Amino acid sequence: MENTKITYSIEEARRYVANAEETIKKAKYDPEIQSYIDSKYVRTAGDILWKGCLIALDTVFQVRKGKRRPSIDKYRDAVAKRDRKLLNYVNNGYDITHLCMGYDGTTDKKICDRGFEITNAIIDYCAMMIPKLVCA
Fold first, then answer.
1. In total, how many domains does the chain have?
2. CATH number, domain at 67?
3. Residues spanned by the domain of 33
4. What is the pLDDT of residues 12-23, one digit of tens each?
5. What is the pLDDT of residue 1?
6. CA distance 127 to 40
7. What is the pLDDT of residue 136?
8. pTM for the full model?
9. Partners of 91 in the beta sheet?
């Protein structure tokens, strides 16, 4: 049953990426300026991407304890103890999806594309780490 919950969480994180892809389409890309037109949808897509990252990270690292929302530092500490490469992804994911896209609403397509790449990398990396948890 625990294995099913883990698989479901990774699938849920991937579903968030799919939802973000649908959302960013609403921002309407302008190829002439290589930017999205509506930052509202970019912000929403960035927030969805970051939540997908957190779901994947929570699957591997049990950071959420109690009722309070953990800070990014708790995630960074937990990840740093296990894997430095994943820590780099988390730092970049936080900066691009949560801050640049989610807060700032950057409309630059290259930055947004990188946000999707990093989110997928975090989810894939967490999915790869799961067999080690189940067997350990």
1. 1
2. 1.20.120.330
3. 2-135
4. 999 999 999 999
5. 39
6. 31
7. 42
8. 0.88
9. none
Low-confidence stretches of the chain (pLDDT < 50) are 1, 4, 134-136
d(CA 76, CA 107): 27
Residues 6+ apart with CB under 8 A from 24: 36, 41, 42, 45, 112
The fraction of the chain above a pLDDT of 90, given in percent, is 78
Q: What are the b/e assignments for 62-98, b being 16+ CB within 10 Å?
A: ebeeeeeebeeeebeebbeeebeebbebbbbbbebbb
Do 16 and 51 meet the contact criterion of CB atoms below 8 Å apart? yes
Token pair belonging to 6: 């883990």
* Rounded Cα–Cα distance for residues 76 and 97 (Å): 16
**Amino acid 63: pLDDT:** 81
